Amino acid sequence: LSRVVSVALSTQLDTHDQTWANDHSARLYAGFDALARLLTDLRDSEAPGGGSMLAKTSIIAFSEFGRTPRLNERAGRDHHLGNCALVAGGGLRAGQLIGASSDNAMGPELINLQTGQPDETGVSLMPEHVLATVLASGGVDPTELRVDPVPALIG
Fold first, then answer.
1. Which residues of 58-97 are buried (b: 16+ CB within 10 A; e: fewer)?
2. Which of 71, 92, 94, 81 is closest to 24 using CA atoms?
């Protein structure tokens, strides 16, 4: 067993030209398919002491950047402020969609951490919020990250 494992499930995703339209979705699908198989295997595998391995595991899946909503002059997409992450495992509430993007250029909206919903008095959801949430869901105090977890994801 390991405390931390890092895996690249898809590669060659940083394209900015017309290959984006031809290759990007197939490469993403391969990564998502591998992730789905991992989640299914963990869910269906019994952990020592009972319960599923997924209930004893925390998973964070993300990309280091998002993509612009509009094509660039080379028929590709460039880096963008908006992004997403998937979190799964023990202590995390399943089936939640947290955050939103604006109608104008799909920029990230401020959110209320308690509800996970857009709130003009909320905060910008950052990677450290996601990490704080996963730590808190496992009973680890995330105070040193200097951000709050997202209670809407802890269950």
1. bbbbeeeebbbeeeeeeebbeebebbebebbbbbbbeeee
2. 71
Question: Looking at the whole model, is its pTM more than 0.70?
Answer: yes
Q: Which residues contact 137 (CB under 8 A, 6 or more apart)?
A: 58, 89, 90, 91, 92, 149, 153, 154
**Residues 129/113, Cβ–Cβ less than 8 Å:** yes
* Domain layout of the chain by residue ranges: 19-153
Picking from 62-66, 91-95, 109-113, which range would have the lowest pLDDT averaged per residue? 62-66
What is the Cα gyration radius of the chain?
17
Element (DSSP H or E) covering residue 62: strand 58-62
* 154 DSSP β-pair partners: 92
Tokens of 78: 């460039």
Residue 27 is predicted with a pLDDT of: 86
In this structure, what token pair is assigned to residue 70?
Answer: 């509009």
Is residue 1 pLDDT above 70, yes or no?
no
